[in-house]
Amino acid sequence: MAYTYLQLINRALVKINEVEVTSANFATTRGIQTLAKNTVNDAIRDLIGEELEWPFNVASTTQALTVGTQEYAIPTSTRSMDWDSFFIKPINEVTNGEFTSAITSWTDKSAGSGTAAYTSTGNGRARLTGDGTDIGAIEQTLTTTVGEKYRLVCRTYSNDITLSIGTTTGGTNLLSETLTIETDGDGQSFTYTFTATTTTSFLRFGLTSTTAGDVDFVRVSEDRDGRPLALVNQTEWHGSLGSGPSRIVDTRLDSGSWGWPTHVFKTQDDKFGVSPVPAQGNWEVDFDYWTVPSDLSAVGDTTSIPDRYEHILTHRIDYYMLLLRSDPAIADRANKMYTNGVSRMRTELINKPDAIVAK
């Protein structure tokens, strides 16, 4: 279990035979105790600073693209970017289609004694129950583009459920399917496509049977495969005369040159750019980056450093505290253990192949 901020502070104080801090006086410490609080964060910054790309500091994010906008800000806590991770894909048009904790964003369209409710079964599902005549149903309005083809994937459990998509509430003119479960008690996944004819499409799941049926998840997006974005050198983007990613083409006042981005490039002002300029607003880019953790501040805060390496962090804390006590020999010993520990962390976390290549 990871040491809390309070525990790290007290470990440092005990090493130099000082009074420990309690949760009651944590906010009003003075002198050596306050110095210990600061030293813990100094040591964490040192350890994090030993490598740009410690794997325990990786974060992922998604940037929605905007029509005609080429450059986007990177997260403010970014320390390093994983430029090989950029991946463009159509956005999921469904809100709360995973039903993780509720069926919010869906309209209850049940009739008679039919019901639509949330169940925590699995990772969360929408549970529909009819009354034998009337339905239990949920519906959501999707924003769609006229003439655009969309792909839907969903998974249902326990009973046959009717799936419909139309241009009006309850409509079936775009898609109407009975999701038949082949094996009772087992879930089944379904995939369909439809072409939007209006800017709003109504997605509905319904069930008449008095035996409940569950919708596990549903996702709808433009019928286009996602793809990695290739990194182009900014110098090449600036200097290209039009073959491939080009600043000349991308900055031209001509929407005809906009399209589905294929490349990503770095900027000098904490942004990234995509090329060509996005022609639609229903695309998004996923990417990974290495973040700078915030300082510990509350009693129970913990670090991102894995538990098995926290003793290395405490060596660095000890080093600072022992220097304060004018004990350079023991301080140097603590620092040497810290340095050796960081070297082992590099070996275990960074300096190893991702895969074995046959020769």
Write up this protein.
It contains six helices and 18 strands. By secondary structure, it is α+β, with helices and mostly antiparallel strands. It has a five-stranded antiparallel beta sheet, with no helix packed on it. The protein has a five-stranded antiparallel beta sheet with strand order 5-6-13-8-11, with no helix packed on it. The mean pLDDT is 93.
Task: Encode the helix/strand succession as letters.
Answer: HHEEEEEEEEEEEEEEEHHEEEHH
Catalogue the unreliable spans.
none
What is the helix content?
10-25%
Kindly report how far apart the N and C termini lie.
Answer: 41 Å
Beta strand count = 18
Give the integer mean of the pLDDT values.
93
Arrangement of strands in the largest sheet:
4-7-12-9-10
CA-atom Rg in angstroms: 28 Å
How large is the share of residues in beta strands?
A: 25-35%
Described by strand count, sense and barrel closure, the largest sheet is: 5 strands, antiparallel
Described by the principal axes of the CA atoms, the overall outline is: flat
Derived from helix and strand composition plus strand pairing, the structural class reads alpha+beta
